[in-house]
Design goal:
Blueprint (H helix, E strand, L loop, with lengths): L8 E2 L9 E4 L3 E5 L5 H11 L4 E8 L2 H7 L8 E10 L1 H15 L6 E6 L5 E4 L4 E5 L4 H10 L3 E2 L6 H4 L7 E2 L9 H9 L4 E7 L1
Parallel strand pairs: 2-9
Antiparallel strand pairs: 1-10, 2-3, 3-8, 4-5, 4-6, 5-11, 6-7, 7-8
Helix pairs in contact: 1-3, 1-4
Length: 200
């Protein structure tokens, strides 16, 4: 099946990629086609033990970025937000309501975790996902297998294809008149809070 990019990512050579994963001791690294995000995260939220937390990282505003970067080679920065102590149903409602943004925006990062087990699933840039689990990594492996992901010892991701000669263009997206910035403001009413400023 053809590997699909997020609406907010444009890059050449992605036909070489597949939804696949590499298993470590307590961690899994994943390359995920945009088509597989919905079923993958639906499955994740059935595995994570309650209470669940949601987090997202969004790029800093231009003004804030200028104040943080000391030189041209300095890393860019993200604002980190958390929504703690959620039920699975609340987490599923976030995916249902904002999945079209989370699974298409080329700039944001997000994830879910469990307060009780410390399991964490983190969707990073360029459609790369990391899973950490101290005791339940096989549950996530079974989910990936059931979703059609291929296990490999030589994981290839979009990052491997990006270079000065083959750059990626990433941008924010709009869904039903909303962007990730609207999502942040809306979820603040449910308890989402700013936690930290982090480097890219």
């Amino acid at each position: 099946m053809r590997f699909k990019l997020f609406e907010g990512i444009n890059a050449e050579g992605c036909e070489k990629l597949r939804s696949s994963y590499k298993l470590y001791n307590n961690q899994i690294e994943i390359c995920c086609s945009a088509d597989d995000y919905q079923k993958f995260f639906s499955g994740i939220l059935n595995i994570l033990s309650e209470p669940v937390f949601f987090f997202t990282e969004i790029p800093c505003s231009d003004d804030k970025e200028l104040s943080l970067r000391s030189c041209e080679d300095s890393p860019y920065h993200y604002e980190l937000y958390y929504l703690d102590n959620c039920t699975r149903e609340v987490a599923k409602a976030i995916v249902k309501r904002y999945g079209s943004i989370l699974f298409n925006d080329g700039l944001i990062r997000f994830g879910f975790g469990s307060h009780s087990t410390d399991d964490e699933v983190f969707s990073k840039r360029f459609q790369e996902i990391s899973i950490y689990s101290k005791d339940g990594i096989n549950d996530y492996k079974s989910l990936l297998d059931s979703c059609g992901f291929t296990e490999t010892s030589d994981l290839k991701t979009l990052s491997d294809l990006i270079s000065d000669e083959n750059p990626a263009e990433c941008c924010t997206v709009e869904s039903d008149g909303e962007t990730v910035f609207d999502m942040i403001e809306n979820l603040k009413e449910a308890g989402l809070y700013f936690a930290d400023t982090v480097e890219e």
